[in-house]
Design a protein that fits this description.
340 residues; Rossmann fold; alpha/beta; single chain; four-stranded parallel sheet; five-stranded mixed sheet; 39% helix
Amino acid sequence: MNQTRITTWVLMASLLLSLMGGSEAAVPSSRGMVTIVDYTGKSMEVPSPVETVISLSSHASEILCALEGGDKIIGRGASSTFPPNLEDVPVVGESSYTPNIELILQLDPDVVVADTMISDDGREKIESAGIPVIVDRFSDPDRTIENIRNLGLILGKEERAEELADFIEHYQTIIEERVSGLEEEDKPIVLCEWGSAWKVATPGTSYGNKIIAAGGTSIAADETPGKYVVVSSEWVAERNPDIIVFQVFGKVPPTPEEMEETRNEILSRPGLGDVKAVKDERVHIITSGIVGGAPSVIGDLYLAKWFHPDLFEDIDPEAVHRELLQKFLGLELEGVYVYP
């Protein structure tokens, strides 16, 4: 081989290596960019599949884990404690309302997921560092399917997301089909209290809408829609609800004894002795863990069965809840989420 040919081969090899940027750069990247439009209407480009996520929403965290993305979460809001392995993830704020911006920027995630409680200023500070922020109503059951699909897209888990969406929509359809033919007089009047005595959900709120979707009539149908209003015993007695449902909040579901105590307090409230719901003991306690996010369909099934036991005699909400946890989180059902 003459000198000219040797020189030619050396130059070709050198050029090839420079174009490849070394052996590591020769491996093609499987990551791309996807476009997400969030609840605020903002369109953004997000890497997919993301490698790191900060979730300031407990409902979003649960969905991320159900989509096999729990190991991507490097920071969380303090209320993100389910599934239990999230407790090992650093806390970067109490919630979307009070994020630790400095810590979030230090962790430098691919994306931040937040509820609508996040301030415009907080969002801008994060986005100015080149970190996209997906803002949505993750607690709103009407947004659950859209949120599942968006999070599946950024995780590169679209197929898994469709499996979860199909599971939820299957039971939503059952409820819709069975209550769709009900006459108004066949729908029970429901008092739904939200977190504290006499605080009532109206139609237009997530909780109030669930009552209607399950085949009930809201006791607050004539109040300003989309609000939680504080009422009195006289107000309730005058409207004479058929059923009372009280939603309790908390990171950890209350014990059966605690829920029984709450129920007994409602049954013994002054001024409600002649109310149908109290006389018939149709008073139920439901926990926030099955009212929002992916498990919200479980709460829907309980409500529908309480309102129309004959129509949903074949449905066991607890069994559906168990299946949801086993199939998508690999967990067994523990604790009590409703009473009785």
